[in-house]
């Protein structure tokens, strides 16, 4: 018998003899023992027992007292803030970590220094090639050249420049190129659709857009508003597209050409100030035109810094490798990447096909990964599927989960224990094997999936809650809190208060749900507009601004939350998109969607509702076609 097999046999013996409460102490020891189990002698047993107890994992101290994670400000409104807010000089929102690093122009240069010009941006040519990297100094030089090139093409500081591309190194060169000359980043993306993209170009009077490839250039040309004058293409463009552009009076340049143009012109940099507009980030609403959220450099730096602080001892640092696959068009990914560039870590881009993510992860071996529930639900579902076939596997898995849960509850964070190596190794490997930090955001994550990921990955898994209007994170769970089903205390650049939602019968004072309202107060994010009023927070849209932001400056998130006794926030509902069923129950389509996406039969789900009936349509072509019973999922509620 191999050592691992004998350990498994021993574990099964334990299951049978119901000794599982023993596990807390002996699981770590067992693994160590596993290696010697074949040729065990009494003295080596004694020595290994001694060795184990000498190297026993030591629990970590939580970042905040777990029973009181967010202090309250005085007053009847019950405003919750982060511990860092309370600890800072007479109570202040955190807007930066170092006083002289307050723009995304400065954070990137700080990272170049911190990493000692280490690797910065990585990509692979094909799915079989390794990652190649450019260092910070080269990235900075190319970014500066690209920015200088945009100036040569007629861009002027504070002008809005669009980008329509998947994540790739050029995205960051463009982004930093913009910051080098106080230009403003405006991402366009597929899910907006052609009409919304045209709307954005028109609303911002954008004249330059960077596109990834021919298809995206062609799409823009189809509905190009008159303001559009120049398209910069990262990949080659077809002749027909070039001709079509010419006939519309639009010039097309290649990305490299713009870099060369900029190198020749060598325009001196025009760095932005913290109050300058950094980005206009459009979010697609359910109805009507998209809203352009205006964020200053100060806003984004505050958002990034407050998340870094909330990570405690596990914060990102030089030497970290992050995988980039979530869309850079959203603030979640933008904040994560800019955090990495701030501390001098490096970012490796996925190959562009989400189906090949595992391949990329195995090659990149990231230490840090932002993730979304959809991805983790798939992993969870796959593992559940794997273990359901065999009673032995299932028993082992459940024991491993119980033991890891206990370990995590004690504050022990590791992935080299007995259970990690025995049961969860495959999960580690699927994520590259080096992961030490995962941040989950953008949608609600089921508690059992979160706990599973924490156990299976053996690394710190944080869940955040945020909105573009608040520069990303509003709350983030802290290291040491292993309990799922909440999104943690506020981060230090935001304060959170709850207000009544009478139409849903949620009252601030009542025991259950309460309305949620989050305010961003670190840097007035309206500063960019000279008439600096609250009206200006959505780009040229005072009406929608008035809907979302009240007279005191609180941004109403539209989510409904409640405070748990230990000062963490739980999101329990959504104000909009609700159906009230005939029996008087409220149905939240997202909730149903989340449940259905847990199933292996479901790839995409669409919930349609009239207040009397809600139907769910979903299908996963892969499992659907191969599964013998061929259910068609169609449920009426
Ligand atoms: C926080 O409070 C909730 C609700 O009372 C509880 O279930 C959870 O265990 C607490 N979290 C911690 C880390 O103690």
From TrEMBL:
<keyword id="KW-0443">Lipid metabolism</keyword>
<keyword id="KW-0812">Transmembrane</keyword>
<keyword id="KW-0472">Membrane</keyword>
<feature type="domain" description="AMP-dependent synthetase/ligase">
    <location>
        <begin position="127"/>
        <end position="509"/>
    </location>
</feature>
<keyword id="KW-0067">ATP-binding</keyword>
<comment type="function">
    <text>Catalyzes the conversion of long-chain fatty acids to their active form acyl-CoAs for both synthesis of cellular lipids, and degradation via beta-oxidation.</text>
</comment>
<dbReference type="InterPro" id="IPR045311">
    <property type="entry name" value="LC-FACS_euk"/>
</dbReference>
<keyword id="KW-0276">Fatty acid metabolism</keyword>
<protein>
    <recommendedName>
        <fullName>Long-chain-fatty-acid--CoA ligase</fullName>
        <ecNumber>6.2.1.3</ecNumber>
    </recommendedName>
</protein>
<dbReference type="InterPro" id="IPR000873">
    <property type="entry name" value="AMP-dep_synth/lig_dom"/>
</dbReference>
<keyword id="KW-0436">Ligase</keyword>
<dbReference type="Pfam" id="PF00501">
    <property type="entry name" value="AMP-binding"/>
</dbReference>
<keyword id="KW-1133">Transmembrane helix</keyword>
<keyword id="KW-0547">Nucleotide-binding</keyword>
<dbReference type="GO" id="GO:0005783">
    <property type="term" value="C:endoplasmic reticulum"/>
</dbReference>
<dbReference type="GO" id="GO:0016020">
    <property type="term" value="C:membrane"/>
</dbReference>
<comment type="similarity">
    <text>Belongs to the ATP-dependent AMP-binding enzyme family.</text>
</comment>
<dbReference type="GO" id="GO:0005524">
    <property type="term" value="F:ATP binding"/>
</dbReference>
<dbReference type="InterPro" id="IPR020845">
    <property type="entry name" value="AMP-binding_CS"/>
</dbReference>
<dbReference type="GO" id="GO:0047676">
    <property type="term" value="F:arachidonate-CoA ligase activity"/>
</dbReference>
<feature type="transmembrane region" description="Helical">
    <location>
        <begin position="29"/>
        <end position="53"/>
    </location>
</feature>
<dbReference type="InterPro" id="IPR042099">
    <property type="entry name" value="ANL_N_sf"/>
</dbReference>
